[in-house]
Model the fold of this input.
Amino acid sequence: DPVNGFSAQTLTRDVGCAAPGSIAEIPNAGLAFLGEDAVYVLEGALETEGGTTKVTHISSPVTNLIRGINRSALLNSVGCVYHRDNEYWLAVPTIGSDTNNLVLVFHYEVGAWTYRENYPISCMLETHDHRGYLMFGSYDTASHPGIYVYSEGFPDKDGTAIAPRYQSAHLDLSVGLIRSIRPK
Done:
């Protein structure tokens, strides 16, 4: 309001964000987030959208997978939009795990869901350079330490089976090391 300034308005009392790390902006849709019982999109809240602001449930096709999420570890869930493949990735812990071991992937151009298992994602982001890589940090320091770059890869090269993988070197990011690599 130009005269009175900003004001708050309740959209719904039934839905809330249960995992702040799951919030990501899906192009031409809104802000996606994980609630206690579903994945939702806050529509109409962005400048480019116009339209009425509302909360929309988008995870109906994967209801059974949502039911299998460990509610006591919801805060570990993280989300990211991967523009290269037009996907919203949501890494969640399933029942019996306190770490993210299931990735729900919403293909926002077509409105369909798929899932991927056993990605050790504790955090993820999309790079904002010309390459637009999806990168994630692993929580599994024993068998899969480091930072990973997502790639569809190739199952074989000239008939020889390969397992494409780039593994970063382990760096102890203790306070002493951080101080020593700061620019002067």
